[in-house]
């Protein structure tokens, strides 16, 4: 790494992702004035946070923000929130400031892209690409507690459960052990983890349907006969023609209500069945997406040609179909 005047001789590992502390620069022989000069608008560096310098101009990457935040807060800090979930493999794009857990004894002011959160329960960090992240359950609960609404709260919980990053029990344990501020809504959502998983699957299915030449369906419905006896369930329902779309979730018994379709077809309901794996892969596999859309469009036209809608009733209450 060079400056405009001399070669910097920094200790091995001092510069990571182009980020270095002013303490390391002092150790390499640079005075405070020299560092300040290089961090001026016309200089080759920029100061991202107090005591933290990026050895380049331009817009820092998200990773450089993460690295700078950790250098700013110290070695005992832990990255949580959306960044931690993304590091664990969840398909989220962090949009907010870096959330950093720090010891209760450490007082740090929030900065433009860093929000330090003092905690008496610092988790054991999971190091991913040399950065310390909170475990999935802790990160998910931290995000859920600060979610702007119930749908956003349920969405993040559903995603971590569906991806197998943690279990409902681990989420509940983390919630019980942590700060209780904002926990009531999270606790209510965790009471129905099956519904959470279904909501996430429906969100993926809804993305598939965005390209479909079909009306918008109703989601997660219970279908009954005229005597109100339950015939079955549909993940998506087109009421105008009596079309049910069932998404078979991995791990459910073939005898579970979610897989029962014969009573529906006997009542005249047209049923299309798709595996959850197909729905989840449709976003990245155009061939699978096209196959799903063709099946649904064909079934819709077939049901429409029948003329008479089947004599069934539907309700949209959140009835679990995993039992």
What integer is the average pLDDT?
87
Estimate what percentage of residues fall within beta strands. 15-25%
List low-pLDDT spans: 1-6, 251-255, 318-323
What is the helical fraction, as a range of percent?
A: 25-40%
Report the total helices. Answer: 12
| Integer tally of domains | 3
Radius of gyration, in angstroms, nearest whole number = 26 Å
In sequence order, what are the helices and strands, one letter per element?
A: EHHEEHEHEEEEHHHHHEEEHEHHE
Query: What shape does the CA trace take?
Result: elongated
Q: Cα distance, first to last residue?
A: 61 Å
Structural class: alpha+beta
DSSP E strands, number: 13
Describe the structure.
- With 323 residues, this protein is α+β, with helices and mostly antiparallel strands.
- The chain has 3 domains: 1-60, no CATH class; 63-191, no CATH class; 210-315, Endonuclease, Chain A.
- The chain is 37% helix and 19% strand.
- The protein contains 12 helices and 13 strands.
- It has helices at 22-27, 32-38, 62-73, 82-87, 136-145, 150-162, 168-177, 183-190, 193-209, 262-266, 276-281, 286-305, and strands at residues 19-21, 46-49, 52-54, 78-80, 98-103, 114-119, 126-128, 131-133, 218-224, 230-238, 243-248, 270-275, 313-315.
- Strands 12-11-10-9-13 form a 5-stranded mixed sheet. The chain has a 3-stranded antiparallel sheet with strand order 1-3-2. A 3-stranded mixed sheet has the order 4-5-6.
- A hairpin with a 2-residue loop joins β7 and β8 (131-133).
- α5 (136-145) packs antiparallel against α6 and α5 crosses α7 (168-177).
- The longest helix is centred in the last third of the chain and has 20 residues, at 286-305.
- It is elongated, with a radius of gyration of 26 Å.
- 35% of the residues are buried.
- Mean pLDDT is 87; it is low at 1-6, 251-255 and 318-323.
């Amino acid at each position: 790494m060079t400056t405009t005047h001399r070669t910097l001789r920094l200790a091995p590992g001092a510069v990571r992702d182009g980020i270095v502390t002013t303490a390391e620069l002092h150790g390499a022989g640079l005075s405070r004035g020299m560092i300040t000069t290089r961090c001026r608008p016309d200089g080759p560096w920029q100061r991202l946070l107090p005591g933290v310098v990026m050895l380049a101009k331009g817009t820092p990457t998200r990773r450089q923000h993460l690295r700078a935040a950790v250098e700013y807060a110290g070695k005992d800090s832990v990255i949580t929130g959306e960044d931690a979930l993304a590091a664990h493999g969840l398909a989220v794009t962090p949009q907010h400031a870096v959330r950093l857990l720090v010891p209760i004894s450490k007082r740090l002011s929030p900065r433009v892209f860093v929000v330090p959160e003092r905690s008496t329960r610092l988790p054991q960090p999971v190091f991913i690409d040399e950065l310390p992240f909170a475990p999935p359950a802790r990160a998910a609960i931290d995000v859920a507690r600060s979610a702007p609404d119930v749908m956003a709260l349920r969405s993040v919980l559903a995603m971590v459960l569906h991806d197998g990053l943690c279990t409902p029990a681990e989420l509940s344990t983390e919630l019980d052990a942590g700060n209780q501020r904002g926990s009531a809504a999270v606790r209510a959502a965790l009471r129905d983890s099956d519904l959470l998983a279904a909501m996430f699957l429906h969100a993926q299915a809804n993305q598939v349907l965005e390209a479909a030449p079909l009306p918008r369906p109703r989601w997660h419905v219970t279908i009954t006969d005229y005597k109100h006896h339950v015939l079955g369930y549909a993940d998506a329902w087109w009421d105008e023609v009596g079309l049910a779309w069932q998404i078979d979730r991995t791990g459910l018994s073939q005898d579970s209500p979610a897989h029962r379709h014969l009573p529906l077809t006997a009542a005249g309901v047209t049923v299309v069945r798709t595996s959850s794996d197909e729905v989840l892969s449709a976003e990245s596999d155009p061939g699978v997406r096209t196959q799903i859309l063709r099946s649904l469009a064909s079934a819709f036209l077939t049901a429409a040609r029948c003329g008479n809608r089947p004599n069934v009733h539907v309700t949209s209450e959140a009835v679990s179909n995993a039992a």
